[in-house]
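Figure 6 in text form: structure in, sequence out.
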C-alpha cells in the first residue's frame, strides 16, 4: 500500500481490527486498522488510513503514522483506534519489540488522518504485562480510562482490564482493575496453541470497545474464539459503570470467523458495527453491518448496501 489511490472499495483494502472515526464537520469517515501486509513479523511499517464520505468509496492509503527515528518498537503494529478528546485526535495502538512486553501506547495528531506522533512515554499499560488492544472510555464524571486486554499468552485465561488515565492521556494512574476473564463468556472456547501446555485451558481476549446506549446501558464488545472460529460477544455492566460487575451474553453477536469490532456513529445518526473477516492473513477485509439499539443492547439490523 504505497501512494494515494481513489475509489477503493472495502474489497480492495487488506485490513485487520477496523476502526471507523466519524468526522461530522467534514462529512467524512476515516478507516484505521492494522494495515501492514504481514502484521505478524518484523519489520513493521506503520499505520495507513482511508477516507470516505459514503462508507463505500475510499481514498487512500494515507500514511497516518510512521515510526520516528529511534522509536522503540519495530514489530506488531496492531489495532489503532482514534478518539477525539479535548480537541485533539488520540491514537491508541499496540506495539512490541524484541525483549519488550507488548503494550498500548498513545499517539496524538491535530487532524484525523495525522500524522500521529508519540504522546505517552512508551506503553501506558503495565510494563511487565503482555497487553494489547487498548481503547478509551470516558466515564460519566468525565474521567478517562484505558480498557485493554491482559494477554492469554501470559495469564492463560485472557483478561479485560480497566485503568484510569491522566486527564491529558499521557500516563496511566492508579492500579489496574480486572473486569472479567474470557472464560466467563458461555460462548468462548479454549484455544489450542503450541505455547499452551497440555491440559491447560487457554482463552483469548481481544478488542474491547465500549458503547453507551441511549437508555444508559454500558456495553462492551470484545472478541475471542467460539464454536465456529474467531467471534465477537457483548458484555454489559450491571452497574452502568466501567467498574462493573460485567455480565456476559450467552451467544456472540458475531459467531462466524470474524471479530475485533467497534461501533461507529454514522453521519445520519445510525450505528455501524465494524469487524474484520476472515481471520486469515492476507485475506482479511473490513465488514460493516448496521446496528440498532433494542432492550438495552444492540442487535444486527441490515447490511449497509
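Output sequence:
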Amino acid at each position: 500500500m504505497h501512494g494515494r489511490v481513489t475509489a477503493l472499495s472495502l474489497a480492495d483494502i487488506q485490513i485487520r481490527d477496523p476502526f471507523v472515526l466519524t468526522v461530522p464537520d467534514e462529512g467524512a469517515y476515516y478507516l484505521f486498522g492494522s494495515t501492514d501486509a504481514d502484521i505478524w513479523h518484523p519489520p513493521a511499517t506503520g499505520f495507513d488510513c482511508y477516507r470516505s464520505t459514503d462508507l463505500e468509496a475510499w481514498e487512500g492509503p494515507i500514511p497516518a503514522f510512521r515510526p520516528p527515528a529511534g522509536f522503540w518498537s519495530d514489530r506488531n503494529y496492531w489495532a489503532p483506534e482514534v478518539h477525539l478528546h479535548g480537541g485533539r485526535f488520540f491514537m491508541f495502538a499496540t506495539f512490541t519489540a524484541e525483549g519488550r512486553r507488548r503494550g498500548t501506547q498513545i499517539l496524538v495528531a491535530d487532524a484525523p488522518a495525522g500524522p500521529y506522533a508519540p504522546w505517552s512515554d512508551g506503553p501506558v499499560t503495565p510494563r511487565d504485562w503482555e497487553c494489547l488492544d487498548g481503547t478509551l472510555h470516558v466515564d460519566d464524571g468525565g474521567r478517562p480510562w484505558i480498557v485493554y486486554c491482559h494477554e492469554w499468552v501470559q495469564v492463560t485465561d485472557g483478561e479485560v482490564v480497566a485503568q484510569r488515565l491522566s486527564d491529558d492521556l499521557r500516563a496511566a494512574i492508579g492500579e489496574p482493575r480486572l473486569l472479567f476473564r474470557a472464560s466467563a463468556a458461555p460462548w468462548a472456547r479454549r484455544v489450542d496453541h503450541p505455547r499452551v501446555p497440555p491440559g491447560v485451558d487457554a482463552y483469548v481476549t481481544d478488542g474491547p470497545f465500549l458503547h453507551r446506549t441511549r437508555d444508559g446501558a454500558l456495553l462492551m464488545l470484545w472478541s475471542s474464539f467460539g464454536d465456529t472460529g474467531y467471534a465477537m460477544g457483548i458484555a454489559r455492566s450491571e452497574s452502568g459503570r466501567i467498574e462493573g460487575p460485567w455480565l456476559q451474553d450467552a451467544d456472540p453477536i458475531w459467531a462466524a470467523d470474524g471479530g475485533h469490532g467497534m461501533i461507529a456513529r454514522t453521519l445520519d445518526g445510525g450505528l455501524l458495527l465494524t469487524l474484520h473477516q476472515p481471520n486469515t492473513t492476507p485475506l482479511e477485509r473490513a465488514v460493516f453491518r448496521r446496528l440498532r439499539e433494542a432492550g438495552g443492547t444492540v442487535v444486527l439490523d441490515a447490511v449497509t448496501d
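Caption detail: The chain has a mean pLDDT of 95.
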